[in-house]
Design a protein that fits this description.
The chain is 36% helix and 16% strand. The chain is built from nine helices and 15 strands. The chain is globular.
């Protein structure tokens, strides 16, 4: 594989190996232009990056508040996933987080597997793209480095509509057929709003603190991109935002979660994964999305983004049409209110919303 060197972003060496090509910080596309190109079909979203900026001091205060309120819960959920993964028979595990929302989760779970359960856990972070699948070159790299197909475990932060879980299943099925492997495509997440993951710590729409920042909580790595000069043996690409180092929280955030989880593990019993009603979550998701599309005259399901994590992504890197909040006074959505104010996005209050928040992307046909 050319054009790639082993790097861990802003994490300590050994915490993660990003199987991504580092690309130059050039050729960025303005958010509005990118949205028009995506919706017109002229370019796929994976072919473009918009530049990121450092979060404001006001926004970072909200991140700190989110950490104080929810880091303990996120740590508990990471511990639940680690316990389930530790039950696998193979001693050497290859954790494969989906860059980049899955990266902080992978860093924490890998540490817990090593430090608490005594497992040999190597953590890779790879790209997956809607309509394009997982980075097959990255998977081949993992297998070539001595990992057994049944040692691979996929991790992400959360599911919104289950699109990536289904994309993963389809692309792994194709990979297995082409390479004669039997990789398990099951996705492990902290929160599964769509009933689409193989394993989830919960189906609750809670504020996962890492969901409200971009690169500065994910190793200073950008969203992944499929550059125009990619060859079949190239990894997907990314930009490394070295200039944000002064405000980076990636390693400190992971360290705090690991510390909280290890403290929790010293209690009488380790938290076990609860039984998740995936059917109910799936029905809730499908019912709401269908109703929202009818109510707001939306023809493309990709313009509806349910849940705190997905709603935040829209405000950070897409062109929002509307933000809906169940309770505008809830601490879980305080950052969304700030982003909506900064970007002058209308906010609608709906006490019957099945999630804390939903964002709608503006259709290009709306002008």
């Amino acid at each position: 594989m050319s054009g790639w060197e082993d790097f861990s972003g802003s994490y300590r060496k050994g915490e993660v190996s990003f199987l991504l090509r580092r690309l130059p910080q050039e050729g960025f596309v303005d958010v509005a232009e990118k949205e028009a190109l995506i919706q017109s079909g002229r370019r796929h979203y994976s072919q473009m990056l918009s530049p990121e900026s450092m979060p404001s001091e006001r926004y970072m205060r909200l991140f700190d508040e989110a950490c104080r309120a929810n880091n303990a819960r996120m740590a508990r959920d990471c511990l639940r996933l680690a316990r389930l993964i530790a039950a696998r028979p193979l001693h050497r595990l290859a954790l494969v987080s989906l860059a980049r929302a899955g990266t902080p989760v992978g860093v924490v779970v890998a540490r817990l597997l090593r430090e608490l359960f005594g497992r040999d856990a190597v953590h890779y972070s790879v790209s997956i793209v809607r309509d394009r699948g997982i980075d097959a070159a990255a998977l081949r790299h993992i297998l070539a480095h001595g990992h057994q197909p049944d040692s691979i475990v996929f991790l992400d932060g959360w599911t919104g509509k289950g699109v990536i879980a289904r994309e993963l299943a389809g692309s792994i099925e194709t990979f297995n057929v082409r390479h004669g492997t039997h990789i398990d495509a099951g996705l492990h997440v902290l929160s599964d709003l769509a009933g689409a993951a193989a394993c989830a710590a919960s189906c609750d729409d809670y504020l996962i603190p890492s969901s409200i920042l971009n690169a500065t909580v994910s190793g200073l790595v950008s969203r992944t991109v499929m550059s125009d000069d990619m060859r079949s043996d190239d990894f997907h690409g990314c930009v490394f935002y070295e200039q944000f180092a002064q405000v980076d929280r990636s390693q400190a955030f992971a360290d705090e979660l690991v510390g909280l989880a290890l403290t929790l593990a010293q209690s009488d019993t380790l938290p076990r994964a609860q039984a998740i009603d995936a059917v109910a979550a799936r029905e809730r998701s499908q019912t709401y999305i269908g109703a929202a599309m009818r109510r707001y005259g939306i023809a493309d399901v990709n313009l509806v983004k349910p849940g705190i994590g997905e709603a935040t992504r829209v405000l950070l890197r897409r062109v929002p049409r509307l933000v809906m909040l169940r309770d505008p006074g809830a601490t879980e959505v305080a950052h969304l209110a700030v982003l909506a104010e900064e970007k002058r996005v209308p906010v609608e209050i709906d006490p019957h919303l099945p999630y804390h928040a939903v964002s709608l992307i503006r259709s290009a046909s709306d002008g």
